[in-house]
Specification:
226 residues; alpha/beta
Amino acid sequence: MAEVNQHIDKNPHHDNRNYNYQGFEDDHRSEYDYILNMIPQNAMVIDLGCGNGALLQLLTKRKNAKVQGVEISSSGTDICLKKNIPCLQAPIDQILPFPDNAFDYAICNVTLQMVNYPEILLSEMNRISKHQIISFPNFAWYKNRLQLLIHGIMPKAQLFGYNWYNTGHIHQLSIKDFDLYLKQNFPQTRISKTYLRNPNILLHLLQNIHPNLFCRIVIYQLENPK
C-alpha cells in the first residue's frame, strides 16, 4: 500500500470529495446573480451545502436576508463563522433540525448530485421552506453526450475537470430526470426554470428550444402549493 499511496495526489483541491474551501473563501459563482434575483428583500433563507458562505454573504448584503447555512465540511463551516454567517456543520441529506416552513427559501446550489440521498434532501427542503431553489449540472448536455459517444469515457466537462474516481458527483441527472422526479413526487408544486445564459448567441437560442440538450446548468424555482 505504501508504494501505491506515493502516487496519489495529496492536494485536497484536486479531489472535490474533501470539500476543502481553504483558499476559496470568496469565490463568486456564475449562478449567484440568478439566485439573488429570485429572492425578495428581508427573506429568511437557508443554504444547504453552503460551502464558503459566499452566496449567503451576498444575500445579507444585497437583500438584507436572515440567513442560515448547513455545510458538511469543517473548512466551509469555519469560513462561514468567520464571516459571521450562522452555519451548522452537518450532512444535508438527512432529517434537518428545523421546524416546518421555518424559511421562506431553501437553496441547494450545484450540490444535489453530490449527496447520498437526494430524495431526502428534496423532501426536507420542501418541508422546511415555502420556496425551493435547486441548481445542478445537466448530464444530458451535448458536450457530455459527444464525449461519451466519441471517446467512451466519463465526461470531464460534466465533472468540472475532475476524474470519475476523485469527484463527489455521485448522482448524475438530466433536466428530464428531474422533471420526471418532480412530477412523480411533488405533482402540485409550481415549477419555473432558469437556464444560465450562454455567451454564444446561437447556443443560447438552442438551449431555450431544447434545454435538455444545450443547457449546462439549470436553476429550478419551486413553490409549495397554498
